[in-house]
Write a structure and sequence with these properties.
The chain is of the alpha/beta class and about 270 residues long. It has 12 helices and 8 strands. An 8-stranded parallel beta barrel has the order 1-2-3-4-5-6-7-8, surrounded by 8 helices.
Length: about 270
């Protein structure tokens, strides 16, 4: 059996532009199929701000893997049991929100990594190990070398500690949460003070040698702004908003067509 490689890492390595993803908040496998068909590089299955449960996440991860889009799972906290289960379900990475300190980053690493770097248990008979068909050494190699840990920086404290967080052995990328960052400072997302904090977080990630991403809108202007800021991966809206926007556009288009009033209907 050939070595499995991370679709997320491959997307980061390509040179045609930033890696493009979207949040998945709807617990339906068809959503992931549609996202894959659209050409997205990765999805972040959101267990923090959605009703998705573990069983639904398991099915979403499997659909992503079978359709060629990288499944990342955002968990609400670094609970080792939950992290281990989503990784053994085949997730290519885990995203942790509100990482403000080195200690929190180290706790996340401990949950994701096998010993001696962490405390993740061995479950090679899961999907991550092809139900036992993958040799144990390859299962462990993938967990150590390919699985991605993304720490979200979402406060001024997180920004101040961003370089140290990104430098923790086992942290692979940062994601700047602009909305939470702005709210934590009592400012609007486009406030210059927030923009300065975002730039500092990007610079910190670069200095530590890790990619930095963001979440934005589903427009060329949003992606252009992300690239100009220095982000190397970006999330374009989310499944629910994309569906809602398309539905609204369809209705708005339909409402532009006049309905003739025939004599008999008067």
């Amino acid at each position: 059996m050939s070595a499995r490689t991370s679709l997320f890492r491959a997307a980061l390595a390509q040179r045609r532009g930033p890696a493009l993803g979207t949040w998945v908040k709807i617990p339906a496998t068809e959503v992931v199929e549609l996202v894959a068909l659209a050409g997205f590089d990765f999805v972040v299955i959101d267990l923090e701000h959605s009703p998705i449960d573990l069983e639904s996440a398991f099915r979403l991860i499997g659909t992503a893997l079978h359709t060629g889009v990288s499944p990342i799972v955002r968990v609400a906290d670094p609970h080792p049991g939950l992290v281990q289960r989503v990784l053994d379900a085949g997730a290519e990475g885990v995203m942790f929100p509100h990482v403000d300190t080195v200690e929190q980053a180290q706790a996340a690493v401990a949950a994701v990594r096998f010993p001696p770097r962490g405390t993740r248990g061995v479950g090679a008979t899961s999907r991550a190990g092809a139900w036992g068909a993958t040799p144990l050494a390859e299962y462990l190699r993938y967990g150590r070398e390919e699985v991605v840990l993304i720490a979200q920086v979402e406060s001024a404290t997180g920004v101040r500690n961003a370089r140290e967080i990104a430098s923790v052995d086992g942290v692979d990328a940062l994601l700047v949460g602009a909305a939470d960052l702005a709210v934590s400072e009592g400012r609007a997302p486009d406030d210059p003070a927030v923009t300065t904090l975002i730039a500092a977080a990007v610079q910190a990630g670069r200095a530590a040698g890790v990619p930095v991403g963001n979440a934005g809108g589903a427009t060329a202007a949003s992606v252009r702004a992300a690239v100009e800021t220095g982000f190397t991966f970006t999330l374009l809206s989310n499944d629910a908003t994309l569906l809602g926007t398309a539905a609204r556009a369809a209705v708005d288009a339909g409402r532009t067509v006049p309905f003739p009033m025939h004599e008999e209907s008067r």
